[in-house]
Amino acid sequence: MRLTPFHVAVQVRDIAEARRFYGGVLGCTEGRSAPEWVDFNLYGHQFVCHLNPALGPQGRLESHFNPVDGHGVPVPHCGVVLESQELHQLVERLKQHSIEWVIEPTTRFPDTPGEQSTLFILDPTGNALEFKSFRQIEKQLFAK
Questions:
Q1: Cα–Cα dist 42/65, whole Å
Q2: What per-residue confidence (pLDDT) applies to 55?
Q3: In sequence order, which residues have a C-beta less than 8 Å from that of residue 78 and are 6 or more positions away?
Q4: What is the structure's pLDDT at 98?
Q5: Distances, alpha carbon 131 to alpha carbons 37, 76, 86, 110, 138, in Å
Q6: Does the N-terminal peptide bond of residue 76 adopt cis geometry, omega within 30 degrees of 0?
Q7: pLDDT at 7
């Protein structure tokens, strides 16, 4: 099966702040935009930030945290599966920007078909993002 880009849309409290985070911190290029939304290229996927004025300038979304292998995983969350080198580069970029970890870069499910390197962060509005990699994406992504 050929994988195609996904589209995900999240709400943000401030479009300029979203541009600084997704463009400046994560390094995503910007696509189309309007005063109330902006598209970003998130590793080849369409990631759209929609302004929610009801959040206010200091508003934050709240996540539920599910226990998974000893970590509190934020739900809902979205993210991208990267090649190992891309994940390493992202970790270094996040460290340069002093981003706070929800879950620090770690290896989960070691020595199983689902072994993966992963990290969780929040954007300024509180949207939870996961970035992960597998040694062999094609074999491990949907392994049982």
A1: 24
A2: 95
A3: 8, 10, 127, 128, 129, 130
A4: 95
A5: 23, 14, 10, 17, 16
A6: yes
A7: 96
Do 79 and 37 meet the contact criterion of CB atoms below 8 Å apart? no
CA distance 121 to 132: 12
The Cα 120–Cα 135 span in angstroms is: 19
Dihedral angle computed from the Cα positions of residues 104, 38, 86 and 134, in that order, rounded to the nearest 10 degrees: 70
CA distance 143 to 87: 20
Q: Which long-range contacts (CB under 8 A, 24 or more apart) does 94-99 make?
A: 94/25, 94/119, 94/121, 97/24, 97/25, 99/25
> In this structure, what token pair is assigned to residue 12?
């943000």
Entry pTM: 0.92
Does residue 102 carry a pLDDT above 80?
yes
The end-to-end CA distance of the chain, in Å, is: 17
| Tokens linked to 91 | 């970790």
**27 in helix, strand or coil?**
coil
